[in-house]
């Protein structure tokens, strides 16, 4: 069983027990969150396709950490023009573990 859901402008394919990093979610560690923007769900040999989302499906996940990604450097440079700009960025993330994928009514 797996599902594809949308969060933070990105789509993620998940299975039960999988861990992944999402854009920062303002919630405490240990809280259970629900995702309702599910686009696709496969359960055994049945396929459920949303139009655009499935209204009767829910993904439950537990937050287990917050953090920041590794620093990336952005360099803008024009040769022979005395122009050089260096900038860094560290994106915040939330690590979650998928606990349950359920669909309330089999169609």
Can you walk through the features of this model?
The chain is an all-beta fold and about 110 residues long. The chain has one domain. Helix content is about 0%, strand content about 65%. The chain is built from no helices and ten strands. The chain has strands spanning about 1-5, 10-15, 20-25, 30-35, 40-45, 45-50, 55-70, 70-80, 85-90, 90-105. Strand 1 (about 1-5) and strand 2 form a beta hairpin. The chain starts with a strand and ends with a strand.
Which key features would you list for this structure?
single chain, about 110 residues, four-stranded antiparallel β-sheet, 10 strands, elongated
SSE arrangement:
Elements: E1 2-7, E2 10-15, E3 19-23, E4 32-35, E5 38-43, E6 46-49, E7 57-68, E8 72-78, E9 83-89, E10 92-103
Antiparallel strand pairs: 1-2, 1-5, 3-10, 4-7, 5-6, 7-10, 8-9
Please sum up the structure shown.
The chain has 107 residues and is mainly β. Helices cover 0% and strands 64% of the residues.
- Beta-strand content estimate: over 45%
Q: How many E-type strands?
A: 10
How many separate domains? Answer: 1
Largest sheet: 4 strands, antiparallel
Low-confidence stretches: none
The average pLDDT value, as a whole number, equals: 94
- Indicate the overall shape: elongated
Q: Residue share in helices?
A: under 10%
- Structural class of the helix and strand makeup? mainly beta
Cα(first) to Cα(last) distance is: 16 Å
